[in-house]
Amino acid sequence: IENNQVKKINNFNNDVRYLLKTGDRDVDFILVVTEIGTYKLDHRNVLTKLNTEDGIFITKINKSNDEYLIGTMTGLSKFNKLDNKTTPLISSIPEARRVVEDDLGNIWIGTSHNGVCKISNLNAKIPSIVYYDTVKGLPNNSYNLPFLIEGQVYFGTFKGIYQYNSKNDKFEKN
Question: What is this structure's pTM?
């Protein structure tokens, strides 16, 4: 974006699914998530391909200044901006549509058709992964997308806004 005008970069003509502006001090960059991979666009308009995964969403990990989570059609990956590398983390989460991290460090993932997934201890050798569906109170298993609002995780669903109640281990309409 230059003078409030969007300009075409490097003849990039693919399905762009998410943009995240980020950076440190004077070195800003944009992470571009697409159907053919994730890219880093730097302040010189240089586009660097980071991976070839069919990406959907990207978010910064709260407890890290240097790492980001990428939701893909086949799971979850991590991008480290220090070495410009992405690493597949979990491949058992189909179509990770939206990803947020709560204040406890739990990662909540909304999927296209497989309910909601919560990952605890992401950096452990074997992270804890729990799947939630209609049995646990979701109105359906499609597009329950998490949002972080003032430290609370809410889920936008086809039937309104829901929140996870940890005491009852169920989702409840908010």
Answer: 0.85
